[in-house]
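Dear all,

This email documents one entry for the complex benchmark we are building for the journal club exercise. For each entry we list the sequence lines for every component of the assembly. Then comes the predicted three-dimensional structure of the complex as a token string, followed by one or two observations. Please use this as the template for your own entries, and keep the labels exactly as they appear.
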Amino acid sequence: MTRRQPFRTPGPIALLLLALLAGCGGEKGYPDRPIMLICPWSAGGGTDTVSRKVAALLEQELGVPVNVVNATGGSGVTGHTRGALAVPDGYTMTMITVELNMLHWRGLTNIGPDDFRPVMLLNRDAAALFVREDAPWKSLGELHEYVAAHPRALKASGTAQGGIWHVSLAGWLDAEGMRADDIIWIPINGAGPSLDALMSSGVDLVCCSLPEAAALMEAGRVRCLGVMAEERIADFPDVPTFREQGSDWAMGGWRGLALPRGVPEERAERLTAAVDRVIHSEDYLEFMEHSGFNVSPAPPDQFREVMEQFDRQMGQILTGEAFQSVRRTRYGPMIFPTVVFLLMAVILLVLVVRGGLRRAEDAPAIDRRGLVRMGMVPGFVMAYLLLVETAGYVVTAAVLLSALMVGLRVRWPVALGTAAVLVPITYQVFAVLLRVPLPWGWLGW
Amino acid sequence: MIDPTIVEAAGQVLLDPVVWLAVISAAVYGVFVGAVPGLTATMAMALLVPVTYWLPPLPALAAVVTMVACAIFAGDIPTILLRIPGTPASAAYADIGSGLSARGKADLALVTALVSSVAGGLIGAAVLIVLGSQLAQVGTLFSPSEHFWLYVLGLSCAVVVSRDAPGRGALAVLFGLLVSTVGLSAVHAQSRFTLGNPELYQGIGFIPAMIGLFGVSEVLKNLITLEVGPEGGTEGIPPAGSNRPIRSLPLGIVRLMRRPLAVLRSSAIGSLIGMLPGAGADVASWVSLGVSRRSGHDPRTPDDEAALDRLGDATTANSSALAGAWIPALILGIPGDSVTAIVIGVLMMKDLRPGPEIFEKQPIIVYGLYTIFLLANLVLLPIGLAAIKAGGLVLRVPKRILMPVILLFCVLGAFAINGSGFDVGVMLAFGLIGFVLERRGVPLGPVVLGIILGGPLEERLIQVLTASDGSPWAFVDRWPARVLAGAWVVLLVLGLARPRRRSGGGRGEPVGSGNSSRLSS
């Protein structure tokens, strides 16, 4: 308001120029920039494979890049949380999985199905039970008898403690009137390593989906005792269901696309329509069939119903008394850190007493100027983190890179030149070629 | 003698221009991905998948195999030139490699790494071809207790390798293990040390930590000593050598030929470890380095020569680990690492189901794959030389320009892995930690290994304890576990007893954080 006139004009002009240069004069309609698809599981897994296929097809459908980002870790907490808390502008989508129904019951996150606006249910994988080929049990009934007669004699695995396959198995035991921990669960991360353990007699049973064990089943090394589905799975017609063998238990995982809650309705609908076309394309169906994934799409309303039904079921299992006893393992989460910490303390003590931690002789002394130069590094990184979301990668990186170089007494034309060449190249390579979601920012590069 | 299908498969691979195109573009892509820390082979693989939809099976496989082989070598380039490991598999020899570079032997070190990688890759491929089916059975012997010992063995190698300072090496490993416990524990899915911060649930990623420990701390170290000259001229860059890598090539090959047994030993270690799920090229480097260090060098060998030999052994092992990972994938349909997990997905998409029958049903694919493995490693040689040449140019850039650029790449690399700003913060924190540790003479490589193996080690420990209801005998109740435990004891006795005697009273003497003093002591 009291700003002087001469400072006022360049601002708008520069902005106008920028807008012209970037060619983004206002809302041209959704979507007009890259969409990020968050996958809460690591690259290479089933969820990732489906995510990448859907992303590749959506990209053709929508005409903008759709980048898959693997936000992994924390049993799915990380990815689901990031997806739910993303800005609801329709440019962030999440491939949500059944863990969304489980994590909040286990107190690991506050995020639940209500934080998402469902777009499309893509597939459902029923749980199945596998034993080694030489195992004495030929059917579910025989296994049932054995477990009832010898509680806590068998060991099973398939995923981490409290994962979907664990819940599936514990839920079956519970439904059959046994205790959920009558079969000891050995937490092994992932179906692949669990099947390894089955082969090496580390465990007696593995609970996972059918495609995951298909190769070993075809090779005649494992036998499937049954699948926890309502009816037989098309790709595996020889595998009997639990229902056929006298148990009403059905359980499994699901995957689907969702947006954070609060996305403008017309955008959500535009996306849903695009996804709908994608999942009915021949390309997609062929891919899913070859990869062994089951295809059972459902539109948003039904997807929500599925989630709600799972949520109730999971709530019953996970908060039930039977499962609570399973959750308390004797070998708790603090054993390992304690052992490591104690060992470290001993070694640290020995080193300090013997003077082994003195400054290395050839480490250069730090003078004041050196300290200032060093301080530029955290300065650079923190300024980058602060600015990049608003200003975008290109502007932030160019400004900071030249500033740091000038700070190190590089002549400024050299510094500006280097930044002007390098930053666009890195953007092209990382964001365009390698699909790293670098922030878009003012320039809209 | 020669099966006609083998000839046909080889012909299909070698005479197909699409295969050659795929191999060469994948090689260039692999070199780039490997050389930039933070871009991992797994991520590069995931990006390659949509491309493989359009390709027939053999070119698709060719692209994958070549990309990974080139990436693992290219990781050595920034490791040796800048002391920033491009891939975790190179962290084991960051000190050795950059020490050589600091003494003007960058060319020789890089060419040694290249030649050893090619040899390791070829021998690894030979192992896959000849012994694959038999070795796949070894994998099925590994229950959680064997894995436990394998991880302990890998970690102990990192301690043993920290010459003259096993105490500090152990401190580094334990620090890494402790860092790995932050976040939601894999076994119990309960949060530890997260201070209620959801970002910390995913734990501290080893890639951002590695970039910080090596990359950022190196930038910090360089900025301290940066002379502020009157002009913006060149200063303080280690002599890059002649930058004529091709001239060092005969020397590198001669070095390899001189030690056939060591090459075979390193390849064997690499193949075996690569084959086991949950252990890959990174563990293979460390174990090979640990064994190489113990296997009685002639004390009269000059230090640089010994360093080059050890560098060669480690690079041989990590390259042959790559083919090893295909053994269980191809034969049992169980992936040996995340790359082969994606490969299995690609194969299934093309209606090829890996498993024992693939040999009968799809012999062309299997023999074609074997040919591709040999081809990929041969292509690595010229592409690798070109990459070394290009890498050498980096050292001509004045430090005051180079350091800011490296810092930008560190930020990009840390961000790229998960697309999260939090990881960039982790990178900065570990940069400062690495800087302090380094000045106190604590080696950084073992910290990275600790972070990588902490999760799996804990998982196996808890699994064994749960299965046996707490009996410690469960760790040694099977013969493969006993063999590994025995190997561990031998390693500790040999590794920790000898250097003390050798270096006499020099225990308390500070050992250089830098590379030169450690190697020439």
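Observations: DSSP finds 17 helices and nine strands in chain A. The radius of gyration of chain A is 28 Å.
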